[in-house]
Amino acid sequence: MAADPPRQALPPLRDVIAAHGLQASKALGQNFLLDEKLLDRIAAIPGPLRGAHAFEVGPGPGGLTRAILRAGAHLVAVERDERCLPALAELDRAFPGQLRVISGDAMKVDARAEAGDGAHIIANLPYNVGTALLVGWLSAPWEPLPWWSSLTLMFQHEVAERIVAAPGTDHYGRLAVLAQWRGEARIAMKVHRSAFTPPPKVMSAVVHITPRPAPDDVALIHLERLTAAAFGQRRKMLRQSLKGLPGALPALDQAGIDPTRRAETLTVAEFVTLARIMGARIMGQAQS
Ligand SMILES: C[S@@+](CC[C@H](N)C(=O)[O-])C[C@H]1O[C@@H](n2cnc3c(N)ncnc32)[C@H](O)[C@@H]1O
User: Fold this and answer.
1) pLDDT at position 210 over 70
2) C-alpha distances in angstroms, 99 versus 83, 149, 190, 269?
3) Which atom from ligand 1 is nearest to the alpha carbon of 30?
């Protein structure tokens, strides 16, 4: 379906940055994307957005914001840098009724309350809070799905690799287990550093995550404790790294997992099985 034209012609993003004096701030992780074709491709990753709700962190001068609005979404965008607000107000006028901008820190905003259930989260994330925001969205209650429909998020390439990593690879760790327990995670697009203004030191990638229904008998807390202990000493055998975690060694035995294996060799399904057994044992002890 063709993209919605804005009600009034939009100036090129480079001119928006110049007109509003938006010198990029390193402290705010500002690396802007100005190529509108690239931005339209990113906004297309979640699938058709016409009439959908979307939530964006860090719209900045509004490049990705425009693309999401052109795709027909109703968007709530949270921006910490007040210098960007006039540029975003221009977008509000160009796409009337589609955009609501919240001036503030995304770490303190209740995204679910602001964007509503079913929203697609789409963002070129500031690198300093990107992982914390992701973990927050992945840790949201699953009932049996989370409140959001999908996550389309730009990270530094190394972080993207940690999210999608397979067992037995160097990047496999807590983030991979959490993301892949909760959803289907894939790298949807690699983005060269030269696409950004100013260019960051490293390459970037867009990760797309769609949620899968959570097994209702595994509590996040058990999976977190397990992966923290196991990957805290990732080169050690599980019988060593899990020694201090109550219930973990009997759970290994019950699951038939060789205690001489190392954390990085366990599949996400094996971690989930262990967490389920640990949780059941703790519940059983509490009831006896
Ligand atoms: C990588 S830039 C992306 C800008 C724009 N979306 C783009 O793609 O060109 C990150 C943006 O997040 C904003 N930001 C940084 N920390 C933030 C926070 N805690 N809450 C909300 N926005 C934040 C920055 O001001 C900046 O506009």
Assistant:
1) yes
2) 18, 19, 28, 40
3) 2
Q: What is the largest CA-CA distance in the chain?
A: 70
* Cβ–ligand 1 contact at 130 (below 6 Å): no
**C-alpha span between 84 and 254 (Å, rounded):** 56
**Cα-to-centroid distance, 140 and ligand 1 (Å):** 22
CATH of segment(s) 13-211: 3.40.50.150
User: Cα(16)–Cα(12) distance, rounded to whole angstroms?
Assistant: 7
Q: Which residues contact 280 (CB under 8 A, 6 or more apart)?
A: 217
Place of tokens 């693309």: 67
> How far, in Å, is the centroid of ligand 1 from the Cα of 27?
10
Task: Give the H or E element holding residue 153.
Answer: strand 150-156
pTM, whole model, 2 decimals?
0.95
Domain boundaries, the chain: 13-211, 220-287
Domain 220-287: CATH architecture, name and number where available: Orthogonal Bundle (1.10)
Q: pLDDT by residue (tens digit) across 161-205?
A: 999 999 999 999 999 999 999 999 999 999 999 999 999 999 999
Nearest CA, atom 17, ligand 1: 80
**Do the bridges between strand 196-197 and strand 32-33 make them parallel or antiparallel, or are there none, so unpaired?**
antiparallel
Q: Give me ligand 1 centre to Cα 253, in Å.
A: 47
pLDDT at 4 over 80: no
**C-alpha pair distances (Å), 217 with each of 182, 214, 230, 278, 282:** 14, 9, 21, 11, 13
